TrEMBL record:
One Pfam family here: Glyco_hydro_3_C
Keywords associated with the record: Glycosidase, Hydrolase
Protein name (Swiss-Prot/TrEMBL): XYL2 arabinofuranosidase
GO MF annotations in UniProt: alpha-L-arabinofuranosidase activity; xylan 1,4-beta-xylosidase activity
PANTHER family: FIBRONECTIN TYPE III-LIKE DOMAIN-CONTAINING PROTEIN (PTHR42721:SF42), SUGAR HYDROLASE-RELATED (PTHR42721)
Gene Ontology BP annotations: arabinan catabolic process; xylan catabolic process
Residues of the Glycoside hydrolase family 3 C-terminal domain: 103-226
Amino acid sequence: MLGHHYTRTFLETAVASVNAGCNLELSYGMRNNVFMHIPQALAMGNITLQMLRDRVRPLFYTRMRLGEFDPPAMNPYSSLDLSVVQSPEHRNLSLEAAVKSFVLLKNVRGTLPLRARDLSGQRLAVVGPFADNPRVLFGDYAPVPEPQYIYTPRRGLQTLGANVSFAAGCSEPRCQWYSQAELVRVVETADVVLVCLGTGVDVETEAKDRSDLNLPGHQLELLQDAVQ
């Protein structure tokens, strides 16, 4: 609310938030945050002790129901490690979820899906700033994954045994510098071309908005050159 100029100080924000029914603040890593001003608001009479108790009660009730205060031995999840989380069963389920979540907008001439048996002898080109850059594949608030489990489009296609060539064209999503010659050299000899474009957290994320939906930098030019 402070950033949106609804209030002028953290104290005003604390009073307005508590009175409105808010009982949780996202302030990770902030020494000076809103809820630290609640005692002052209470002392000044802007909020009451009963109101404060009413806000705290459901919050801690939920935390207790979630088992946050239980001994670790009572928590069945405390014994899980990567051998379980990254087990073949869980990875196969994640793969199934990923496959079923794709949205295919236009499938001209039945180009997709690409099947490994059809790729024998085919030359594939994977191009674009998202083709083989693990860092840019994850969105805002994503956890830091184990590198061994990250499959970029290039790495994934190589597992099919296809003849895969690669050119980023741009080193990062902003695509301020674009190597047309690098792209053309790879694309002109390919039978199938996959162009991997987008934005990623480098370009847009929380508190980093854009005024349009255009592809960043030279990405549109990269796409047009690949099609040409």
